[in-house]
Every structure is written in C-alpha cells, then in structure tokens.
Design goal:
four-stranded mixed beta sheet, 402 residues, alpha/beta, globular, Aspartate Aminotransferase, domain 2, seven-stranded mixed beta sheet
C-alpha cells in the first residue's frame, strides 16, 4: 500500500492517529505502553529502570505474585502443559476448566458458569448471542467499549440512556413495543469514573418491565461486598442479576472472562456462542491461577477490607487537597485535570517524582474531562498513599490545577 496516497480513507485515519502520537512524543508527554520489567510486591513497579509507586494497577486485592496462586499455575503446567490442543467443544474440555467454572459459579451464587478467552470477548459474544434483530438492548452511556461493541454486533435495536439516570432508563423501557425481548446491560463499577450503578433501582425496573439484566462486574469482584463477591453482596440482594459477567484479569490475576447464571443459560451459550465454539480454551496455567485466586479471596478477607480503607483514605485525602475526584466510591479514583494537555502534564509531574499513574484523555472521555486515572490496591500501605498524594498535590499546584 502506498502510504502517500492521501485520497485513501484508511491511510488518512492512520496518519491522523500517528501524527497525534508523534506530536505527544515530541513533547515528551507520551506515557503509554511503557516497559515494566518487574513487579515489586504489588505496590511498586520497575519501569524504564526506575522503581515507582504503582497507581495504575487493576490488581485491586494485590494478588499478583501470591504464592498460592503461583503454585497453582505451576501445578497446572506440570499436569496439562503450557497450552491447549484446540477448542473445548471438539478437542475436549480439561477437567481444570470445569473445576474453574464450578468455582466461579459457587463464588457468584449461580447454578453454572462459562469462561472465555478475555473479558472483551465475553461481552462481545454474550450480547451478540443472546439478542438479535427485532430485540432491544438498552445500555448505560458510560458502559465499557466491549459492551457497546457487543450491542452493535448483535444487530438488536440499540438504545442508550444517560449515565445512571433511572428515569431515562424507564423512558427507554417504555419505548420498547409490548412483547419484544429486552436486555438491559450495565457496568457495576464504571471503569473511568469509579462510581456505582444505582443497582436496587435498575433491578426494580427490569423486574417491572420484564427485561433481562446483564451486569459487567469487571471492577466490582473483589472490590464490592463484605467478602468481595460483588455488587449483589454489596447491596444485600441475592440472585438479582440474570447474566453475571466478570473478568479474570483484574482482581483475579490471570486472563479471561466469564458469565455465571442459570444452568439453561450457560448451556445455551456453550452451544451457541461463536467465541466459545471457535476459540481455544484458557491455557492451563491461567485456569489454575484463576481458580486458586477465588479461593484466596475467601481465605484472606482482610484484603477486601484493607482495599476499602485504602480507597476511602485516597479519595478523601485528594479531596482535602483540592482535587475533583468526581463521583467515585471505589478504588478507581479519577483526578480531574480538564484538558488533555493538563492531564499529560500532571502525569509527567507524578512520574518524574516516582508515582506511576496514567492519563485518560479524549476521545476515551469527553473533552474537558481528561484526568489521571489512579487506582489503589490492598497492597498499598498508608504511608505510601500519603506520599503519592503529596506528590500529586505538588504537581497540581505547579500546574495551577488546585
């Protein structure tokens, strides 16, 4: 392909993105895809040869490198090898995969579960398998991209409602013709803002209008609920979700995604989902690690409580220093900067002084709402959080953000 051909639409898109990247790099403000050579106990990381405090991790309970989880991964390799020999439907399903799915179902208080190769693929395939033309799928406007892509790929009539606006959701439900299939889908914890869906109300509306409810718990398992079981436990509402989706790559230090629910639902997905039928299974080490991680969460409940304390301390401390952390209630803590340029500059100040945190800019978030997207984990000590906040405060004052 001749990349000098400016009449080609694909080439124009490539040039536009690469020009933006190169401009940021020339300003020494490109912070993405940095090489991490070592993780040091969950709270610290070695980046470009520098040891820094880690405030960009999804390992909310600090389980990366946990000895029991590492041992389970090694044992799985010893038993089954490093990879799979095909798709589970035709080449056979390892006993380890079934054990993992039984473990997930028990953890999520469900009859059964099914695993997929990633969280993104899970949302994509589950939504597009369950609904199609003439059905309706209704989605919060701030849902994860994987949910949006699944809704679009399904071919169903795609309706969105303003973020966490239950009146707007009810208006959407009222727009669906009588007798039509309705699927309402939402994040439990929103990945850019850290806030929670109005869970009791969304459950009430789904029951009132006889709609299916699917909840993405990527950022709520291990974070919400006394035992880290997620949003149902947090609100004391058992079996309120029809389709319980989650990942195995955040609190659970592995890779993959899952859905838990009624046995009939899971059997349908196992025999109808293209991502299950035509994709290789999780590698044994990842399945073994994930299974062990669910047990560690239950065996070490102090981690959930410490995470909650650390998140509260971080949010309140940043607010006292004058930062806008939006509506967060969780370990995801946005530090509002406003412009893309301010977010990049704040990242530079923080990383220069040893805090590894990353910016989120447009179009990932609306213009004017660019931010640092900081996270805390159960691995952080109070003194480390205080130091991080002091460094962020110095950067904010230097740049005139506070």
């Amino acid at each position: 392909m001749d990349f000098s051909n400016t009449d080609d639409a694909i080439i124009r898109r490539i040039h536009a993105m690469n020009n933006r990247i190169n401009e940021i790099k020339r300003s020494n403000l490109y912070f993405y895809n940095q090489p991490v050579s070592e993780l040091k106990g969950g709270a610290r990381v070695l980046v470009n040869g520098r040891e820094m405090g880690m405030y960009a991790s999804y390992s909310y309970l600090g389980l990366v490198g946990h000895p029991k989880i590492n041992a389970a991964a090694k044992d799985a390799i010893d038993r089954f090898g490093s990879g799979t020999h095909g798709v589970r439907t035709l080449a056979g399903s390892l006993t380890l995969h079934r054990e993992l799915e039984e473990c997930i179902a028990q953890f999520k208080n469900a009859e059964a579960s099914i695993t997929f190769s990633s969280g993104y693929v899970t949302n994509l395939t589950v939504v597009s398998t369950l609904v199609g033309r003439n059905d309706y799928v209704i989605s919060d406007k701030l849902n994860h991209a994987s949910i949006v892509d699944g809704c679009l790929m399904s071919g169903a009539k795609f309706l969105r409602f303003n973020h966490n606006d239950m009146e707007a959701l009810e208006n959407r439900l009222n727009q669906v013709p009588s007798g039509s299939c309705k699927l309402v889908i939402t994040d439990a914890v929103f990945s850019m803002d850290g806030d929670l869906i109005n869970f009791p109300k969304i459950v009430e509306l789904c029951k009132k209008y006889e709609a299916w409810l699917m909840v993405d718990e990527a950022h709520s398992v291990g974070v919400l609920g006394k035992n880290g079981r997620g949003i149902e436990e947090h609100f004391g509402m058992e079996d309120a979700i029809d389709i319980k989706m989650g990942t195995l790559s955040k609190t659970i230090p592995s890779v993959g995604g899952y859905v838990a629910g009624k046995r009939d639902l899971i059997e349908f997905l196992r025999h109808s989902s293209r991502a299950y039928i035509f994709s290789a299974a999780l590698p044994p080490a990842q399945a073994g690690a994930a299974k062990a991680a669910f047990q560690v969460i239950l065996d070490e409940p102090w981690r959930v409580e410490k995470l909650r304390q650390n998140a509260t301390h971080f949010i309140s401390g940043l607010k006292k220093r004058g930062f806008d952390t939006m509506q967060t209630e969780t370990a995801i803590v946005p530090i509002l900067c406003g412009t893309d340029e301010a977010a990049f500059a704040m990242t530079g100040e923080a990383q220069r002084d040893g805090i590894f945190v990353l910016p989120v800019v447009s179009p990932a978030v609306p213009q004017g709402l660019s931010r640092l997207r900081a996270t805390v984990t159960a691995a952080h000590e109070t003194s480390e959080i205080e130091k991080a906040m002091d460094i962020i405060e110095m950067g904010g004052k230097k740049l005139g953000l506070i």
